[in-house]
Amino acid sequence: MTLTQLDIEAFAKTSDRDAVLALLATVIGPLERDDDLPEDYDLRIYKSGGMIVVLQAMEDGLISVWVRGASPWPSSPALGRYLAAQLHCLVLCDPEAEYPEISQYADVFLQIEGDAESLIPLE
After folding, report:
1. Mean pLDDT comparison of 17-26, 27-36, 101-110, highest-scoring range
2. Domain 4-121, what architecture?
3. Which domain of life is it from (predicted)?
4. In the 8-state DSSP scheme, what is residue 96?
5. Which are the contacts of 39, defined by CB distance < 8 A and separation ≥ 6?
6. Beta-sheet strands, E only, within 14-115
7. What is the distance between the alpha carbons of residues 119 and 67, in angstroms, rounded to a whole number?
8. Can you tell me the distance from the alpha carbon of 8 to that of 94, in angstroms, rounded to the nearest whole number?
């Protein structure tokens, strides 16, 4: 497995934070909680080796999945595709360099659902 050092993020349309956490742990290893936040807080911080994973409940039933450190996913779209395929849910992320026709400053998300990908305006 090739590891890449960077920050990546995807937004999964699921309310099951435990399923997201369990899925990530199958790839990056055991994740230990690394915060002192109250149980009813929407943010959780986890560590695995030199990697940090932050899960945060967002609006519209999305969970932000932010990974920092030596990640097996080379980009946000790669993480998004993995989450969409394994969790069977819609995922949004920055299209990054995989869509060179889109400016890095554009208000556009890559929407991934199953094998389908589309670029949608940020609302």
Report:
1. 17-26
2. 2-Layer Sandwich (3.30)
3. Bacteria
4. G
5. none
6. 32-33, 43-48, 51-57, 62-71, 91-93, 108-113
7. 22
8. 9
Residue 104 has pLDDT above 60, yes or no: yes
Which candidate, 11, 16, 46, places its Cα nearest to that of 29?
46
Take residue 79 and report the two structure tokens written for it: 């993480």
pLDDT in tens, 43-87: 999 999 889 999 999 988 999 999 999 889 999 999 999 999 999
Under DSSP, is residue 61 helix (H, G, I), strand (E, B) or coil?
helix
Q: Would you list the domain boundaries of the chain?
A: 4-121
Find out whether 70 and 4 touch, Cβ atoms under 8 Å.
Answer: yes
Token readout for 62 is 């999305």
